[in-house]
């Protein structure tokens, strides 16, 4: 692996989600696990383990009110003392009875006002944590044709987004996340990348699109969306996970490592891996049955492996074949990189970064898992109610 590829990989930064460390599940069952954090501070402690062993997970995203505290500045100091930073602030307008018919798109102006107040509160929190990104995902939508007026809901959404955009500080951004369906099943008010892109264009340069890899119709060519948004400088972030069917929120790369490679190739090819591109690489996952910290370590390594392979694509050979219309040689150059086992090279890179070559084994040997399982017996575990 060339020194330039290694140098690029050293700059990789992946943001883990606080909610991946808490209990979660499906509508059928939330399985609790021993050692799950009881507090936001303990979630940060666990996130710091992922960074300690991978070296490339220096930030953790928060979700409000799941991570509500009295003193966000104190929480930021706790994070910094652990060698990590607080990243994106995620708003939550999907867990309040008032939002049954929508949050910022709700027919009731009082509910819209309440939802907007929460979004603005999240910007206040960003001012205290020093976070750059406000991540907005709206569960808003309808279940039956005629239930509400789609155009009017877009006007309500646009009005709210503009109010939030005007409140953002000069170094702050909003990341608008789209989703094809769930919890609404007829319309979602931000169902796809085109709708998110159009709203972000209307808002301004500090409004960017967040691509959650689990939020598309089966068979969607996500790497095309990535290539397009990078070209127009509107790709703000990823919510990485993988799925076999719907928004399964499984470990990124677990279901389709080739798709993750194709996505990371377009990121590298489109300049999205460069620091000044400002793309946030976040994980958005739920470890329903597997241990949480090892699950995050595996996820970070999967993104790192896909990135290493993407950086190994022989661009010269690929472009030459593409330009000469040599279909098979072009595909071969692409597949050669994908079929390269980068694990030995990454082990070497980790050693050069002063880390153990095998993060998962190193974590297992650290005894941290046993310590938290023994030490976190009392109190209410964080996450979804079991
Ligand atoms: C919605 C979503 C969103 C988060 C939530 C935890 O499906 O992807 O990004 O707020 O998961
Ligand atoms: Mn998401």
List the helices and strands and how they pair.
Layout: H1 3-10, E1 14-17, E2 24-25, E3 30-31, H2 40-54, E4 59-63, H3 72-81, E5 85-90, H4 109-129, E6 133-137, E7 141-142, H5 150-167, E8 173-177, E9 187-188, H6 193-203, E10 207-212, H7 222-231, E11 235-240, H8 257-269, E12 280-283, H9 292-311, H10 315-323, H11 327-338, H12 343-352, H13 359-366, H14 368-375
Parallel strand pairs: 1-4, 1-12, 4-5, 5-6, 6-8, 8-10, 10-11, 11-12
Antiparallel strand pairs: 2-3, 7-9
Keywords: Isomerase, Manganese, Metal-binding
EC number: 5.3.1.14
Domain Xylose isomerase-like TIM barrel: 51-245
Assigned CATH class? Alpha Beta
Which word captures the global form? globular
How many individual domains? Answer: 1
Overall residue-averaged pLDDT value = 97
Q: How many beta strands in the DSSP annotation?
A: 12
Question: Helices and strands, in N-to-C order?
Answer: HEEEHEHEHEEHEEHEHEHEHHHHHH
Bound molecules: 6-deoxy-beta-L-fructofuranose, manganese (II) ion
InterPro entries: L-rhamnose_isomerase, Rhamnose_iso-rel, Xyl_isomerase-like_sf, Xyl_isomerase-like_TIM-brl
EC number: 5.3.1.14
GO molecular function, one term: L-rhamnose isomerase activity
Protein name: L-rhamnose isomerase
Can you put this structure into words, describing what you see?
The protein has 386 residues and is of the alpha/beta class. The chain has a single domain (10-375), classed as Divalent-metal-dependent TIM barrel enzymes (TIM Barrel). Helix content is 45%, strand content 13%. It contains 14 helices and twelve strands. It has helices at residues 3-10, 40-54, 72-81, 109-129, 150-167, 193-203, 222-231, 257-269, 292-311, 315-323, 327-338, 343-352, 359-366, 368-375; strands at residues 14-17, 24-25, 30-31, 59-63, 85-90, 133-137, 141-142, 173-177, 187-188, 207-212, 235-240, 280-283. The strands form three sheets. An eight-stranded parallel β-barrel has the order 1-4-5-6-8-10-11-12, surrounded by six helices. Helix 2 packs across helix 9 (292-311). The model has no long low-confidence stretch (mean pLDDT 97). The site of manganese (II) ion has 5 residues, from loops.
């Amino acid at each position: 692996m060339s020194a330039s590829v290694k140098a690029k990989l050293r700059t990789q930064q992946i943001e883990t989600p606080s909610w991946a460390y808490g209990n979660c599940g499906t509508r059928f069952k939330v399985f609790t696990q021993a050692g799950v954090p009881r507090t936001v501070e303990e979630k940060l402690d666990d996130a710091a383990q992922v960074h300690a062993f991978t070296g490339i997970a220096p930030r953790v995203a928060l979700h409000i009110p799941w991570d509500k505290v009295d003193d966000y500045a104190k929480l930021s100091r706790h994070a910094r003392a652990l060698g990590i930073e607080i990243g994106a602030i995620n708003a939550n307008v999907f867990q309040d009875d008032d939002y049954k018919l929508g949050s910022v798109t709700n027919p009731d102006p009082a509910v819209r006002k309440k939802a907007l107040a929460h979004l603005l509160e999240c910007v206040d929190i960003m001012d205290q944590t020093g976070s750059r990104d406000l991540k907005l995902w709206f569960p808003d939508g309808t279940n039956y044709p005629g239930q509400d007026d789609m155009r009017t809901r877009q006007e309500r959404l646009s009005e709210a987004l503009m109010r939030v955009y005007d409140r953002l500080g000069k170094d702050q951004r909003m990341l608008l996340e789209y989703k094809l369906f769930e919890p609404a099943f007829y319309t979602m008010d931000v169902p796809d990348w085109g709708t998110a892109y159009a709203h972000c264009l209307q808002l301004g340069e500090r409004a960017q699109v967040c691509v959650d890899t689990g939020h598309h119709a089966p068979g969607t060519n996500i790497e095309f969306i990535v290539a397009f948004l990078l070209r127009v400088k509107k790709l703000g972030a990823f919510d990485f996970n993988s799925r076999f069917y719907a928004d399964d929120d499984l470990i990124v790369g677990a279901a389709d490592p080739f798709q993750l490679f194709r996505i990371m190739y377009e990121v590298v090819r489109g300049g999205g891996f460069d620091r000044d591109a400002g793309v946030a690489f976040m994980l958005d996952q739920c470890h329903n049955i597997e241990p949480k910290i090892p699950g995050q370590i595996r996820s970070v390594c999967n993104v790192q492996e896909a990135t290493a392979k993407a950086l190994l694509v022989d661009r010269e050979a690929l472009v030459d074949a593409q330009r000469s219309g040599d279909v098979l040689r072009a595909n071969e150059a692409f597949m050669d990189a994908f079929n390269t086992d980068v694990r030995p090279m990454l082990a070497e890179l980790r050693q050069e970064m002063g880390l153990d070559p095998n993060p998962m084994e190193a974590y297992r040997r650290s005894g941290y898992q046993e310590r938290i399982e023994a030490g976190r017996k009392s109190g209410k575990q964080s996450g979804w109610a079991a």
